[in-house]
Design brief:
By secondary structure, this protein is mainly beta. It is built from six helices and 38 strands. The chain has a single domain, classed as Beta Barrel (Maltoporin, Chain A). 6% of the residues lie in helices and 57% in strands.
Length: 670
């Protein structure tokens, strides 16, 4: 089924929702429709899990999902820029300073569906509007389970809000001091025993100069952006224990970075269908399809003319999963299932002379990757002790890879066809949760995981002028092994403290390795070793609440086969320290005042630790002040003290992150 047919099918399911909801069978009692997947297993806290609730999600200073996630220390993108001022293909996300090369090492799920771009592996952050969500669960550390091949550094689970949470009408409109605007809204009617949600968001603005004042040239421009997304979701009861969830998402994102004409676009249409059964034999059946596209124009930083036009990169992702939980007694939660993902895509790009403007080459590259996974897991409750263990087997395949280059007249210059390959990989995870007392819980876990190289890493070279990075069709799967131990302490109601110590090792870690002057290649490093400590605190006293987290990670490239230049160095773009703290005050119903202090430590731009991204500390503020029923004024301040945030440093050529940005607007909730 093509993405458009499934998109239409999901839309048709939404259109038919009122009739289906009215005709839904029941048992004469109340049917409870949640819109969620199956409940978390009792041993889920054996792993390092942080949960963000809706109040924290909708009160970030920027209104961006990446800003919300940064409250979990250890979360990072490939670069420090947010989704208004970075190239979309650099929006890979990871946890625990495990490094990366703009591809995600953490698995991001929206209502159970993987969100990574099928070709690049980046996350379409601008399409994931925080106001549509009710809950975010971040699990740091690898593991198996459904879609386990993407969960090398952890899992970020986004859950959509239901109609009861959103209210019938919900919307906001804000403007910044630079004239940037943010408009969003949802309509969420109840449909019998079910509900529907239609949402939209539009962000646009001229942005700010990412180039420092002393490096600007006549061709320098602001980081302009214009993006929108539309989402639809219907949840219907099919019986007293089975519900249908249909979701569709469309988005389009345009950005300009550094120079006039350096434009990028990212667009997509996603659709999914899900059946969740909560009877004696619980099950979760999911099918999804994604159609994505990306384009990018590279402008010379010396002559300021286009030198590369990656005019389109269409890609398709399809997949699904089936998870079954048979009734094995009240002390067991047993899960068995399978999942499948396939990604295919093609890059089309044209190269141009910086001196004449003439086209010099036409390039095309692509292939398809797939993964079939089988998994089984059990949680066993023994009084105050809960044990968990699972194993997963993955059949991964890399097929149809090619790279061709032709002259502007069509004469073949290069035609590389790469061998098909496949393999079986077995991964596992296990842990224990022990309630030592009503206030103290101990936990420990060990795990392994894999990540398949993306089509982008395998076949697409790219240029961030003046540095060229070559692809590598021989890349092998990344493999992680790790373990951790933690404690949670609740000395009084409303107070929770946690600490986790971890040791993770990624073998065959894929990185952009320097092989010459202004030349890099994607290569498998022998290993990245990451050891560290993660601390968390949550204190609520009456109307005041504090939430904080801190991560210290000692990450190094290791292995006897590592080059002498790399052995012992920190992976590129990985900070040693990251911390976040938020104080909020809700004096009465509808009021919310909050302030957030964040710090990210020094990072290095490259694998050779040559170009430094200095540490940065930022202060954000948020205020919601009710004026009348359902109606509030919203005030937001990003980087209130105007900290200089260096996001790129290539031999002294600098890019900067968001400066002080002040927002004011209104919000309607009802």
């Amino acid at each position: 089924m093509t993405v458009y047919r499934m998109f239409l099918f999901a839309t048709a399911a939404m259109a038919a929702a009122p009739a289906l909801a009215a005709d839904a069978p029941g048992d004469g009692g109340m049917i409870v429709v949640t819109g969620r997947g199956l409940e978390d297993a009792p041993a889920a806290p054996a792993y390092d899990v942080t949960v963000l609730e809706r109040k924290a999600i909708v009160s970030s200073a920027s209104g961006r999902i990446e800003d919300v996630l940064t409250s979990v220390a250890g979360f990072q993108q490939f670069r420090r820029s947010d989704s208004r001022s970075s190239n979309p293909s650099a929006q890979g996300v990871t946890l625990r300073s495990l490094g990366g090369n703009a591809t995600s090492r953490a698995l991001v799920l929206l209502d159970g569906v993987p969100m990574a771009d099928p070709f690049f592996g980046y996350i379409p952050l601008s399409a994931l509007a925080p106001e549509r969500l009710s809950r975010i669960a971040v699990t740091r550390g690898g593991g198996s389970g459904p879609f386990g091949t993407g969960a090398l550094a952890g899992v970020i689970e986004l859950e959509s809000a239901d109609a009861a949470t959103l209210g019938l009408l919900n919307g906001s409109a804000l403007v910044s001091q630079r004239g940037e605007t943010e408009l969003s809204g949802t309509i969420a009617p109840q449909l019998g025993s079910g509900f529907a949600v239609l949402s939209g968001r539009w962000d646009r603005g001229e942005g700010f100069y990412t180039t420092p004042q002393n490096q600007r040239v006549p061709a320098s421009v602001r980081a302009g952006y214009d993006n929108w997304s539309i989402g639809g979701r219907v949840v219907l009861p099919l019986s007293g224990t089975v519900e249908l969830q249909a979701r569709a998402l469309g988005f389009d994102d345009h950005r300009t970075l550094r120079f006039d004409g350096a434009d990028s676009t990212s667009s997509g249409q996603d659709a999914s269908l899900r059946l969740v059964g909560r009877g004696d034999w619980q099950f979760d059946a999911l099918a999804f399809v994604q159609s994505r596209n990306f384009s990018n124009v590279v402008v010379s930083s010396t002559r300021f003319v286009p030198v590369l036009d990656q005019r389109k990169t269409p890609s398709t992702g399809i997949g699904g999963k089936f998870e079954l939980r048979p009734p094995l007694g009240e002390n067991h939660v047993f899960k068995i299932g399978a999942d499948f993902r396939r990604a295919s895509g093609t890059m089309y790009e044209d190269a141009y002379s910086a001196f004449t403007g003439a086209k010099t080459a036409r390039r095309k590259a692509g292939g398809r990757n797939s993964d079939l996974g089988l998994f089984v897991e059990d949680d066993w409750t023994l009084g105050h002790l809960i044990l968990t263990g699972g194993v997963r087997a993955d059949r991964t395949s890399i097929k149809g890879g090619y790279y061709t280059e032709r002259t502007p007249d069509g004469l073949l210059v290069s035609d590389s066809r790469f061998d098909d390959r496949s393999s079986w990989d077995v991964t596992w995870r296990g842990g224990a949760l022990f309630h030592l007392s009503p206030s103290v819980t101990l936990r420990g876990a060990g795990y392994s995981g894999i990540r398949l190289p993306t089509l982008n890493e395998l076949y697409r070279p790219f240029v961030v002028f003046p540095v060229t990075t070559e692809a590598n069709a021989a890349l092998e799967n990344e493999k992680l092994e790790g373990y951790e131990a933690g404690i949670a302490f609740t000395p009084a109601e409303g107070m929770t403290f946690s600490a986790t110590a971890f040791d993770n090792r990624v073998k065959n870690a894929i990185a952009n390795v320097t092989i010459g002057e202004n030349l890099r290649q994607r290569r498998n490093l022998p290993a990245i070793k990451a050891r560290g400590v993660e601390l968390g605190a949550s204190i609520e006293r009456g109307k005041v609440r504090f939430d904080g987290s801190l991560a210290w990670t000692n990450a190094k490239v290791r292995g006897r086969n590592a080059s002498e230049e790399l052995d012992g160095k920190r992976p590129a773009q990985t900070p040693e320290w990251a911390m976040s703290g938020t104080v909020s005050y809700a004096p009465s119903e509808g009021w919310l005042l909050s302030a957030t202090l964040r710090h990210v430590g020094k990072q290095y731009e490259s694998d050779l630790e040559t170009d430094v991204l200095p540490a940065a500390t930022t202060f954000d503020a948020f205020a919601q002040v009710p004026l009348a029923d359902h109606f509030s004024v919203i005030l937001r301040a990003e980087n209130l003290f105007d900290e200089t945030i260096v996001t790129r440093n290539s031999g002294g050529s600098i890019d900067l992150g968001a400066p002080r940005t002040l927002w004011a607007g209104v919000r309607w909730t009802g």
